[in-house]
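Give me the fold.
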Amino acid sequence: MKSTAAVEALGALAQEHRLAVFRLLVQAGEEGMPAGAIASALDIPNSSLSFHLAHLTRAGLLQQRRDGRSLIYTADYGAMNALVGFLMENCCGGGDCAAPEASEIPTAQPEGKSA
């Protein structure tokens, strides 16, 4: 993956609703979800959702297919893996390192809250 594509993908994910859409579609798996179901699950108005879906699709993170009158959206796992691979490239200076356990990764706290 080229750095320009990585910047575009990360930029697309750097918005709360688009990140939520992408995470929902990753959870949905290969079946994907129709736009209406995404809007309902995330409580996003259809007009706003269309904008976010288009942005994620242009960034190469989503794929869409038509099923009758519905557009079905799926996460592009190849693009997601390429982005993670790009971010992890030459991890630890090429040494043998292990990714931290999920329990070791700090989580963001809601504003005004402390751990």
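The radius of gyration is 16 Å.
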